[in-house]
Write a structure and sequence with these properties.
The protein is built from 20 helices and nine strands. The chain is of the alpha/beta class. Bound molecules: iron/sulfur cluster (SF4) (2 copies).
Length: 472
């Protein structure tokens, strides 16, 4: 039976509850009165239950759908303003003993060269990333206790934080590694990671087991309960996500929100971020064999409904998506994007020839970070390289309470402007720099408190003179 407080995956992601939710949502897809009530509740910006949000996702009333999109847009503005936080993935190793049928790194794939970066190679990758302007990374590695044990991941994190090339520094390392033990999560916490990210792939247990036929990842419950172990190990910022296209998106949507409800119910803090990847082409993988792919319209609706259902949770979109698609969903709720990404091991130092790809997935948005920054500013967004919160100890429920009180804003905007200025001074092209400086000038007026504005002004001048790493 469904119980969000249970620590057993079968209870907090209860299949029957999802099926009932989907039937309920279908039965009410044109129920104007109920949809109005849900929208009314959503306007309070305190979120929605998985059932309520599922009704909005299924809504077939055109005017109400427009209201859903406008509300998502408004919530995005209220909570995240026009800032977009930038990050890049860093692939450490593609050795993997799992059999995920949608991923080219699965153990049986003999076409791709297997590679694991040495600490010296990591140094070079990180310098290349720093020279682009990145400050925030997401570490990625396959599951392989021999090639990629936890000690390797910990050593790599230490290496990454230690590299200071010119004005470069990686200030936040988020980690996306396979489900592991409480003890290992504790070690990751001690190593100073930001968010622990683990995609569920699919919440549908039966499909999950078929899609992961071999390896430790086959164990649905162990995988689904990973965030609980991470929280027990002291990591209070966790990032969830599903791989859209594997199962029916309505099912995944309800499961994702139930997972968030579970974390909130047991640990008092929901996921820090939700990622919304869609399945992409890669070596040995043809997305057409997965017949649950979703079109761009449905994808936009999903993003909008997630934004409304969990307003305090950041939303991430990667370079899997095209420029056009990213443009469409940014204003509906996305708060973090990657830029200039390489999705192969060692790809920042040595980009791979297109026909010999060993990327984990095909990158759709291939522009450089400078181009992405320029594009964002052209649309009125402020690209932010901020990493302040976890460095200031604002994690878990401390972070969430500031978010819920609407106060995090007071830190985000000044930090965005200061880190953007650093980027412009150190890495931007002339054209991007010109646009960025004008944008900072304009956005300064939006800092509400005169005292804070004055401090930011002084710090911007210091950045101009060569000082770095100011934060609120
Ligand atoms: Fe391995 Fe992760 Fe790919 Fe699965 S998705 S095969 S665990 S790298
Ligand atoms: Fe994120 Fe915190 Fe920086 Fe805001 S101040 S952008 S919440 S790290």
């Amino acid at each position: 039976m469904y119980d969000p407080r249970s620590k057993c995956a079968d209870r907090f992601i209860d299949h029957e509850e999802i099926m009932d939710t989907l039937a309920y949502a279908q039965a009410h897809k044109t129920d104007r009165e109920l949809i109005d009530q849900i929208l009314e509740k959503a306007r309070e910006r305190k979120g929605l239950s998985h059932r309520e949000a599922s009704v909005l996702l299924d809504c077939e009333l055109e005017d109400k759908n427009q209201e859903i999109f406008s509300l998502a847009e408004q919530i995005k503005k209220d909570f995240y303003g026009n800032r977009i936080v930038m990050f890049a993935p860093l692939y450490l190793s593609n050795y993997c003993i799992n059999g995920c049928v949608y991923c080219p790194y699965h153990g049986q794939n003999k076409h791709i060269p297997r590679k694991k970066l040495t600490q010296e190679e990591i140094r070079k990758e990180v310098i290349a990333l720093q020279d682009m302007g990145h400050k925030r990374l997401a570490l990625e590695t396959g599951e392989d206790p021999i090639h990629n044990p936890i000690e390797y991941v910990l050593e790599s994190i230490k290496t990454i934080y230690s590299i200071k090339h010119k004005n470069g520094a990686i200030r936040r390392v988020n980690v996306n590694i396979a489900a592991t033990t409480v003890e290992n999560y504790r070690k990751l916490k001690e190593a100073g990671i930001g968010t622990y990210i683990l995609f569920q792939e699919t919440y549908h247990k039966e499909s999950y087991e078929k899609l992961h036929p071999t390896g430790p990842k086959h164990d649905y419950n162990y995988h689904t309960e990973a965030m609980d172990r991470a929280m027990e190990g002291g990591i209070d910022d966790v990032g969830c996500g599903v791989l859209f296209g594997l199962e029916l998106y309505r099912y995944e949507f309800a499961g994702l929100l139930m997972h968030a409800e579970h974390l909130e119910a047991v640990y008092g803090v929901g996921p820090h971020t939700i990622s919304v990847p869609r399945i992409r082409r890669a070596d040995d993988i043809d997305p057409n064999v997965f017949d649950n792919g979703i079109d761009d319209d449905t994808f936009a609706k999903l993003v909008a409904c997630i934004r409304i259902a969990v307003p305090y949770t950041g939303m991430i979109i990667s370079t899997r998506e095209s420029q056009k698609c990213r443009e469409r969903v940014l204003h509906l709720g996305i708060s973090q994007i990657s830029g200039g990404s390489r999705t192969s091991v060692g790809g920042y130092v040595e980009p791979e020839p297109e026909d010999e790809s060993s990327e984990q997935f095909e990158v759709s948005d291939k522009r450089s970070l400078d181009e992405v920054v320029d594009w964002l500013m052209g649309m009125g967004y402020i690209p932010s390289f901020c990493t302040a919160c976890y460095r200031e100890g604002r994690t878990g429920d401390r972070f969430m309470s500031l978010c819920k009180a609407g106060q995090i804003h007071n830190c985000c905007l000044p930090n965005a402007l200061m880190t953007l200025k650093e980027y412009l001074m150190d890495y931007a092209s002339e054209d991007t720099k010109k646009k960025g400086l004008a944008l900072i000038e304009k956005e300064m007026a939006d800092i509400p408190k005169e005292k804070v504005r004055q401090i930011v002004k002084e710090r911007l001048e210091k950045i101009e003179k060569g000082e770095r790493d100011f934060r609120f």
